[in-house]
Amino acid sequence: MTPMQTLLDIIQNFAAEDVSSSDESTNLRRDLGLDSLQIASIAGEVEDAFGVEISDAEAADVVTVGDFLRLAVPDAE
């Protein structure tokens, strides 16, 4: 499974919308209807799944799926 697919699986657990067609530019709040608490919960799941640490400040700055992907796989850029 690719990092993107793993991330989308995590996000799907919190989103009412289908995230299967989401890409890096998908806005978590506007496009998927997620709130701050859901995004913070996703950050925790991303930490567990990818073995990374995401600070509260980094989680607060997340706007898109791509933002989470860059935090999950920082060396991919």
What's the total count of β strands?
0
Continuous helix count:
4
CATH-level-2 architecture: Orthogonal Bundle
Q: Main beta sheet: strand number and arrangement?
A: none
Mean pLDDT: 95
Topology as a string of helices (H) and strands (E): HHHH
- Which class in CATH terms? Mainly Alpha
The CATH superfamily bears the name ACP-like
Unreliable stretches: none
Q: How much of the sequence is in beta strands?
A: under 5%
Radius of gyration: 11 Å
Q: Give the overall shape, derived from the CA principal axes.
A: globular
Task: Walk me through the structure.
The protein is an all-alpha fold and 77 residues long. The protein has a single domain (3-76), classed as ACP-like (Non-ribosomal Peptide Synthetase Peptidyl Carrier Protein, Chain A, Orthogonal Bundle). The protein contains four helices and no strands. It has helices spanning 3-12, 36-50, 56-61, 65-72. α1 (3-12) packs antiparallel against α2 (36-50) and α1 (3-12) packs across α4 (65-72). The longest helix has 15 residues, at 36-50. The protein is globular and about 25 Å long.
Summarize the structure.
With 77 residues, the chain is an all-alpha fold. 51% of the residues lie in helices and 0% in strands.
Keywords:
77 residues, mainly alpha
Layout of strands and helices, then pairs:
Layout (H helix, E strand, L loop, with lengths): L2 H10 L23 H15 L5 H6 L3 H8 L5
Helix pairs in contact: 1-2, 1-4
